[in-house]
Structure prediction request, 610 residues.
Amino acid sequence: MRLSSSRRIRRRGIGGDEVLKGLVAAAAISIVVLLIALAVELISGASLSITTFGLPFLYSTTWDPYHDVFGALPFIYGTLVTSALALLIGLPVSLGVAIFLSEKAKGHRLAGYVLGTLVELLAAVPSVIFGLWGLFVLSPNLKTYVEAPLHKYLGFLPIFSATPIGLDYFIAGIILAIMIIPTVSAVSRDVLNAVPNSQREAMYSLGATQWEVIRKSVLPYARSGIFGATILGLGRAVGETMAVTFVIGNSTAISSSLFAQGYTLSALIVNQVGESTSPLNASAIVEIALILFGLALAINILARLFVVRITRGARFRV
Amino acid sequence: MMTTNGLSGNSGRRRRVLNRLMNVLIYVALVAAIIPLLAIVGEVVIQGLPQVNLGFLTGLPRPPTVPGGGIFNAIEGSAVMVGLAALIAVPLGVGAGIYFSEWPESRLSFISSFTNDVLAEFPTITLGIFVYLVVVLTTHTFSAVAGAIALSIVMIPIVARTTEESLKLVPHTLREASMALGVPRWKTVIRIVISTGKSGLATGILLSIARAAGETAPLVVTALWSVYPVTNLWGPTGSLPYLIFYYGLSPYQTWHGYAWGGAFLLVVFMLGLNLSVKLLIGRRFAGVRAEI
Prediction:
């Protein structure tokens, strides 16, 4: 009696196990299918443009819907310039925050928690609100107090040469710098927290100051993780769309001046999808999306290779 | 003698000064990171709060020369699309998360989990273009359904990741105890693992909803905009983020008011959800982590 009932439970259990595993495996498979479908769909959507323009699409500077001639360089250039600017400004600030949270806030858990939370909340603000604030608050202030003086006194340098109107690479770069701070600082903090304490104590015992400990024994140990965090931040900056669309100026000309109006890959897509004048134009926009897809994929895989190993390891160790 | 003393004293002072200087710079960086949040929230409250009243919440947008009006269409559209997106994303995301956590050794788990990480960091505009090509172009219309599908792709990786992480926090001894009593694995997963980790699951779902509610780029190319309340899921549909984008970039003062008011509602929703998740459920999480 007992035996048979337990056998019945067991047999039914095996069936249930397979159903559950099948269902959740299907969900896991759907994620892989989604990424493949994404790639396939973008490639087939861009095929007309790819076969028409070939490789020169990547370095042609013309974007002319009236004559149906398209090239992606102004957008690739804009994306790279604004992202580089974002890293240049955002990385030191993020490292400062990460060092504070991992090295200085140890004795003050509440202060560390509150300040860490504030920085993290920045990531919760929607990108479109960054754009609105960037357009109405940041842009006029930067134009008056930063760009105008730089242009006036250093205008002979090509990067400051254009007369600032408040919609340009520079302001887009600053907005992006602000937006990548939560990501880069959170990941860097995890990486710094994973540095073993013996590494610090050895240095302190030699009479080093705190900065020497950080500079010579903590940061070198965390180097590859911080590199990964930086690449992850770069990925954010490259893909960021709405905030940039508000302040980039939407010009398809390439300029060496940071104060000139420009364009990015993502901003072009948002502004021109659905407004294409020909099938070739539509396909060229999809190819822009494909370039963005490729950039994001490469950046992300690179970042994962550096970060995941380290922070995952840290989590298990704790 | 004097010089030696002077030298060592100098170098010691230089090291101390450098230490002090870097200390100051670290605090400067911290302040620089926090100011934007305060500035943004402050501006949104100053500009947005005065806009919000009952008429603003229940009325519809008007032409730029007509004062008054409201943004009911955007609030309703956002709620409908985020709700639909959750209906798609929660089962898929939770399912994948269960698979990652309970069958971590399988090759599918490794591949799918990696794909999930990549998808989570993807530029959402490319997800939007994908849905534009697959749904909008084939149905010949921008629609709430297309918008919801795009938002669900944004949500799935977040739900999957948080589900995996919270189920992994459930001690293995609980699983073993349940299996040792003869409870089949599927029942163990549902009755023991999920019910123990459910606050973590709820966290993930809430965070993904907060994230989707603020997503703009995917909606611009899928749902577009409408100034009317939702009557047809297969027609263009308004949303709060699109409202901020469209009216914020318009040249009209009255329309800027709509944008700031919408921004205020969105910020209150997002920060409220994020903070409450962090304060209420985050603490229980912290407890679990400390126990291990």
Summary: The first helix of chain B runs from residue 2 to 48.
